[in-house]
Amino acid sequence: MSRKFSFTVQYSVPVEELHRALINDEMWQARFAEATTATLELTHPDGPGTIRIRMTEKVSEDQIPGIVKKVLKSELMLERTDTWGPLADGVAKGGFSGRSGGITTNLAGAFELRPIAGGSEIEATGTVDVKVPLVGGAIEPLVENLFKKIIHSERKSVESWFAAQDA
């Protein structure tokens, strides 16, 4: 059984600037510069104003919740791919998908970047499905919470990147 989710993350920058950062290779490289167990692949298969970001990361043992450790078949590897389309009429649409190795987890959904008073926001809507008998339903909220933390962490990285550009 899968779990649906939806949340928004607000930014204090205009939508045009945020979109420009989200499709910028240097911003993503700065975000992952110190991630020693992560890989990053950036492409622009749909042309200018778009991006595809493929990220993989090995999760350290001390960051894995106990319930997950009990059902983990091997080391926990996370893979996520985000896409962003062009900005049109102040809105950009994107998508995300994710999976993990060591435990069968699938994450999929859509992003929408749009303007709000005082800045912009990204809405993420999607589903998470953990294929583990008996405890999969208990792990799904953990995956959702981890995804929210990652998206909020990305907000901090984008803001730091903007601050560095202005310096």
Number of strands: 7
How many helices? The count is: 4
Order of helices and strands: EHHEEHEEEEH
Shape: globular
Q: What helical percentage do the residues reach?
A: 25-40%
The largest sheet has its strands arranged as 1-7-6-5-4-3-2
What kind of sheet is the major sheet? 7 strands, antiparallel
Query: What Rg is obtained from the alpha carbons, in whole angstroms?
Result: 16 Å
Termini separation: 48 Å
Beta-strand fraction estimate: 35-45%
Supply the helix-strand structural class: alpha+beta
Mean pLDDT: 87
Regions with little confidence, pLDDT below 50 for 5+ residues: none
Summarize this, please?
It contains four helices and seven strands, in the order E-H-H-E-E-H-E-E-E-E-H. It is of the alpha+beta class and 167 residues long.
Describe this structure in words.
This protein is of the alpha+beta class and 167 residues long. It is built from 4 helices and 7 strands. It has helices at 15-22, 25-31, 66-71, 136-166, and strands at 2-11, 38-43, 51-58, 77-84, 92-101, 105-116, 119-130. It is globular. The chain starts with a strand and ends with a helix.
